[in-house]
Amino acid sequence: QVQLVESGGGLVQAGDSLRLSCAASGRTFNSVVMAWFRQAPGKVREFVAAVSWSGDTTSYTDSVKGRFTISRDYAKNTVVLQMKSLKPEDTAVYYCAARSPPSSEYKYWGQGTQVTVSS
Q1: How far apart are CA 50 and CA 34, in angstroms?
Q2: What are the Cα distances from residue 42, in Å, to 12, 25, 29, 58, 93?
Q3: What's the average model confidence in pLDDT over 92-99?
Q4: pLDDT at 27 exceeding the cut of 80
Q5: How far, in Å, CA of 34 to CA of 109, rounded?
């Protein structure tokens, strides 16, 4: 079991930076793939970024490449999403999620944190 709690959301202006953190608890943290998803009003939830259990492989959706960076801190059992050059279209509720390979299903989810980018 993995429990996830996000923090760091807020209201920022276009072009600003923001750092989201996801605190994970549970003895399987080091073996799970961690990811961030987001859901904007009226839209389906979409994948944003993921980092492998080893931390050496990352993936991003095209719209955030070069602006967002995902990383994990094993000492603190956290996953960080560093966001820069934010755009109004980045406005959404951001969710932290985890899955246990080889399963492709993200079984564990946080409660979400709101990110609002004003123009």
Answers
A1: 6
A2: 21, 31, 32, 28, 12
A3: 96
A4: no
A5: 10
